[in-house]
Amino acid sequence: MKSEFLPSTGGDNGVHWFFIVLGSMKDRACKVTKIMIRSAQLLLALLTVLLTPSVTRGQTESQIIPDVVYGHKDGLALTMDVFLPEKPNGAGVLFMVSGGWYSVYIPPERSQLSFSPLRKAGFTVFAVRHGSSPKYVVPEIVQDVRHAVRHVRHHAAKYQVDGNRLGVYGGSAGGHLSLMLGTTADRGNPASPDPVQRNSSHVSAVVAFYPPTDLRPWVTDVNSRYYQNYPALRFEAKKANDYSPILQVTPDDAPTLLIHGDMDKLVPIDHSLNIIKEFEKHEVKSRLITLKDASHGFRGEDAKTAGSETIQWFLEHLAPKKPSP
Length: 325
Hints:
This protein has a single domain, classed as Rossmann fold, CATH 3.40.50.1820. The model is unreliable at 1-32 and 52-61 (pLDDT under 50). It has an eight-stranded mixed beta sheet with strand order 1-2-4-3-5-6-7-8, with helices on both faces. It is 33% helix and 16% strand. By secondary structure, the protein is of the alpha/beta class. Strand 5 (166-171), helix 7 and strand 6 (205-209) form a beta-alpha-beta unit.
């Protein structure tokens, strides 16, 4: 395993904040597993994807709404941080705070720099924390992020976004959750006593970095390293189909961008190669960008490429609809 503290790139550049997260994870529990720390490292890599050398702290002082409660479960609050741009373009982007289906708390004043390029482009960013592994498993986690989308849509006017112009992105487990949102949307339950639940979970654009797209072998083989290392995968095997995005693709799915390294050993690129075939078969607007020699978690030029492509995808697919002539 790599060092649990990744090297700083110097100064207040939005990277060093993550050292505190890793340290607090160790302090918080007597038995912190290697996989938790690895998941946290991957989340760091994901959050630095959208950083550019030209971004400075002075450019990140737009308003933050921290710890917004978007739901409750088991007596606990489900929360997100909202990052508002100076010049809103009316679109919102949900970021899945998830690595290995662990969802860690990162103080928004430390994570805000990672979202600066999206905010500069006018997007309102919602950093969504879900019920975390090891307590919760994938089916429960998917329900959380669906509820997060419903919450944002229900309160769209409050956040100055168009409820029909919502996108989602994430990497690894967060990429899986993003694909689940893009392929399994529903219209909500109009009979629900909860007004939030009456809203659709639909998103209009998806970006997924190195996502697991077929959970079946990981869930059904109890001896696999994935089943053993990722407690969120320990749910009923008969439900594995329902939570494998590759089996959920239909023509009405959201436009989806996949970015994957061809040297990824943790989530092999076959996951993206296989689902892109399904998207193409069903004529879903989609694209796969293969990063040569890149592994799991992008760095350097790969991170820059992934970041710029992400913004362009959202600009294209979350633009206001032109009125019919």
